[in-house]
Amino acid sequence: MKKTTFVIGNWKLNPSSLTDAVKLTAEVTKKYKADEQTVVAVAPGYLHIADVTKKIGRKAIAVAAQDVATEPMGPFTGEVSALQLRDLKVSFVIIGHSERRAMGETDEIVQKKIQVALKYNLIPVICIGEKDRDAKGDFYSFVEKQIKAIASVLTAAQIKKVVIAYEPIWAIGTGKTATAADVKEMQLFLFSTLTKLYDRPTAAKVPLLYGGSVKKENALELHKDGGMDGFLVGGASLKADDFISIINATKR
To answer: Which of 14, 26, 98, 119 has the smallest count of CB within 10 Å of its CB?
Structure first.
């Protein structure tokens, strides 16, 4: 049986208006043709989640949040909780994105967010990735440290409920993209690391995504030869035609 693939569009701080967010949602839902082997989600800004969800309606597209608070309730000004997201019918939540880590988010904070997301039945999409890719391969140690930090707070049953998105920081918003060979090497490394930390059957249950300047022009090669289970898409998810092209590339 064909393995399930995931394509998640991270809209980040876009678009600027609710009207444009709903328009983009309408374009994506109109063009998207669902199938049983593909999971598609979009991650709008918090203020747009309710209206985007309403516009999606019965279409087989999930809604993701771009972050979540470490606590479900309490005196945490400016935060958005897992309970609030669940109430808005959010399915996925992106955790540990490099842009959040650059603002001081540590592995410990990521751990807490993963745990609170799972507690309230949200699926964590956990971002990992190196800042620089050195010729000696030391970046593998950096990625391994991130994986071990995740695994240290998750049982085998829990790790099967998360999605891991490999996003090399040097390829996010830079126009640079890892080659299909680079992606395949990381896919093998992540699978090997998870196998050592758990076991092979457990590792095989964890979806591994690639993110980093994914475009309609490179999606097919990255998916076919990179060996990952789909994509976490940034800028290209803001154009309906490009996003749909990337989704379709995972079906070939």
So the answer is: 119
Distance of CA 247 to the CA centre of its chain: 14
CB neighbour burial string for 150-160, b if at least 16 within 10 angstroms, e if fewer: bbebbeeeebb
The 10s digit of each residue's pLDDT in 206-219 is 999 999 889 999 99
The angle subtended at Cα 22 by Cα 19 and Cα 25, nearest 5°, is 150
**221 among known catalytic residues:** no
Q: What is the CATH number of the domain that holds 85?
A: 3.20.20.70
Q: Write down the catalytic residue from 48, 130, 167, 223.
A: 167
Report the C-alpha gap between 5 and 40 in whole angstroms.
8
Separation of alpha carbons 154 and 151, rounded Å? 5
Number of domains in the chain: 1
What would the pLDDT profile of 111-150 be if each residue is shown by its tens digit?
Answer: 999 999 999 999 999 999 998 876 676 889 999 999 999 9
**Cα distance between residue 9 and residue 184, in whole Å:** 21
Active site residue 217: no
Structure tokens at 201: 């059957």
Catalytic residue of the set 48, 97, 99, 223 = 97
CB–CB of 126/95 below 8 Å?
yes
CA separation, residue 105 to residues 100, 116, 241 (Å):
6, 16, 33
Residue 207 and residue 187: Cα distance in Å, rounded? 10
Give the amino acid at 30: K
> Which structural domain, as residue segments, surrounds residue 149?
5-249
- Answer for the pair 178, 168: CB distance below 8 angstroms, yes or no: yes
**Count H helices, E strands: the chain?**
11, 8
